[in-house]
Amino acid sequence: AAGVIQSPRHLIKEKRETATLKCYPIPRHDTVYWYQQGPGQDPQFLISFYEKMQSDKGSIPDRFSAQQFSDYHSELNMSSLELGDSALYFCASSRFGEETQYFGPGTRLLVL
Amino acid sequence: GEDVEQSLFLSVREGDSSVINCTYTDSSSTYLYWYKQEPGAGLQLLTYIFSNMDMKQDQRLTVLLNKKDKHLSLRIADTQTGDSAIYFCAESLYSGNTPLVFGKGTRLSVIA
């Protein structure tokens, strides 16, 4: 079965640079969530979209923005990167009315 | 407020049963989930339970929910070395389409 696809899988950036992470949800899923998992930490919710509209907002820094496109894929844009942004970024998708979120493999971001 | 707590470590012998516990504080939680994360990997949905259920069994996995005490447990029968991973408990407040709040995760080590 098709899973959530994230790209890139690994990314190395310098401080103050920008990064764009992409997420392709499972076909027919209309909701996308972004989570950040720091080293040794639990995943923390950042932001979610349903039908291209922001549905919930968590602890997403103002330096980050995200959107969901007409084909339901989503992009997380990160600017003015800081060392503390080094983490595993997960995208998850679900279908409205269903109770399960399925996670992608994550993008590991390292900020030097 | 939302707070999910888990013990951090559990060590069991191969073939024994493992029981991973979780407590949550928000009584409005509708769904409770167990995710598995292997080193450097993504989050794999293992099972979930709706808040009006007491128990759910799925092959080697048994989930018990005590809603009065806000206590959730995951029992893994006949634990194998491949079960070694971090297990996250998570709650979803209103439906399956809302952000998940994760516990800190329990690191399960299986000794051969």
Percent helix of chain B: under 10%
Oligomer: heterodimer
Average residue-wise pLDDT of chain A: 95
N to C succession of SSEs of chain A: EEEEEEEEEEE
Question: Which structural class do you get from the secondary structure elements of chain B?
Answer: mainly beta
Uncertain residue ranges of chain A: none
Structural class of chain A: mainly beta
Q: What is the string of helix and strand elements of chain B?
A: EEEEEEEEEEE
Radius of gyration of chain A: 13 Å
- What would you call the shape of chain B? globular
On the 0-100 scale, what is the average pLDDT of chain B? Answer: 91
Give a written overview of the molecule.
The complex is a heterodimer of chains A (112) and B (112). The radius of gyration of chain A is 13 Å and the shape is globular. Chain A contains no helices and eleven strands. The termini of chain A are far apart. With 112 residues, chain A is mostly beta strands. In chain A, the strands form two sheets. In chain A, strands 2, 4, 5, 6, 9, 10 and 11 form a seven-stranded mixed β-sheet that branches. A four-stranded antiparallel β-sheet of chain A has the order 1-3-8-7, with no helix packed on it. Chain A has strands at 5-7, 10-13, 19-24, 31-37, 44-50, 53-57, 64-68, 74-78, 87-94, 102-103, 107-111. With 112 residues, chain B is an all-beta fold. Helices cover 0% and strands 56% of the residues of chain B. Chain B has strands spanning 4-6, 9-13, 18-24, 31-37, 43-50, 55-58, 61-66, 71-76, 85-92, 100-102, 106-111. In chain B, strands 2, 4, 5, 9, 10 and 11 form a six-stranded mixed β-sheet that branches. In chain B, a hairpin with a 4-residue loop joins strand 7 (61-66) and strand 8 (71-76). At the A-B interface, strand 4, strand 5, strand 9 and strand 10 of A face strand 4, strand 5 and strand 10 of B.
Task: Provide a compact summary of the structure.
The complex is a heterodimer of chains A (about 110) and B (about 110). Chain A has about 110 residues and is mostly beta strands. Chain A has no helices and eleven strands.
